[in-house]
Design a protein that fits this description.
heterodimer, A: 38% helix, B: alpha+beta, globular
Chain lengths: 115, 156
């Protein structure tokens, strides 16, 4: 379990993409902090929104729900959402909910830009 | 060969926690710790911690409608002996009572935020049983069988 790491660790913006790096546990406790940040980045209408989950150790259905909402917003803006560097434990939550087929999940940021 | 767990290993934990979202990582840690101490394999430990997290999140969001200072009683216990050994977790709340038939997972083809917690619990646990209590509130009992493949090959 993560020890008090900020859930939104970094945001990188380029003309091609915005990358939001999340960390720690994405659960009902941290979702209120993450959701508005992701919606704010959606509102900038980047061509690609990349959510880097490489430092996320745990996610529950409330975290998955936020990503579904963000994906719907990105799609409404004709953008792309890419989830990158998901660990097996986090990936299993997407598999249980059958959302691993709904999202585009990439191994790296580079792959995400070309997917 | 299934590793033996020392007989003095803790097999039961009971806690009363507040209905604050900050309770979630604490309870996940407790379940992960008792699971590992009892030699459960990591995938099973992760699954049961997730199921408990979803159960508590539902209590916080629905039974107590986000109020953070209400009591929730949690019990985590490893019962029985192989091959009938199982992990049993109960969550007792004192919030509003719901008919068990009204609690069900939703159609996953309808992709939208929320409503996935019951589906997750039903997917990862062998039994998910809700009981309304006469004195008010609900009792949720989650059961997972511990088979030979659920055991870690290395003692923690």
């Amino acid at each position: 379990m993560a020890q008090n790491s900020p859930p939104v660790k970094e945001i990188r913006r380029t003309p091609q993409a915005v990358t939001v790096v999340l960390s720690g546990d994405i659960d009902l406790h941290h979702v209120p902090e993450i959701h508005p940040v992701l919606l704010e980045e959606c509102a900038r209408r980047p061509p690609v929104l990349i959510i880097d989950l490489g430092e996320v150790e745990y996610m529950d259905s409330s975290g998955v729900g936020v990503l579904v909402h963000v994906f719907q917003k990105v799609k409404a803006n004709q953008g792309k959402l890419r989830l990158v560097r998901m660990n097996p434990r986090v990936r299993s939550v997407f598999e249980i909910t059958k959302l691993d087929k709904y999202f585009v999940i990439c191994d790296s940021e580079e792959q995400a830009l070309n997917a | 060969m299934i590793p033996r767990v020392p007989s003095e290993t803790c097999r039961c934990v009971e806690l009363r926690i507040p209905s604050a979202t900050g309770s979630l990582p604490v309870i996940r840690s407790v379940i992960e710790r008792i699971g590992r101490l009892n030699g459960l394999a990591e995938p099973l430990v992760a699954q049961v911690a997730l199921a408990m997290d979803e159960a508590l999140a539902n209590v916080i969001a629905h039974a107590y409608e986000g109020r953070p200072d209400q009591p929730i009683d949690v019990r985590v216990e490893i019962v029985g002996e192989p091959p009938e050994e199982r992990l049993v977790m109960t969550v007792r709340d004192f919030g509003r009572t719901v008919e068990p038939d009204a609690i069900s997972g939703r159609d996953l083809a309808d992709v939208r935020p929320g409503g996935l917690g019951v589906h997750i619990m039903q997917s990862v646990m062998d039994r998910v049983e809700y009981s309304p209590l006469p004195e008010g509130g609900m009792l949720l009992r989650l059961t997972k069988r511990i088979g030979p493949s659920s055991r870690s090959p290395i003692r923690p």
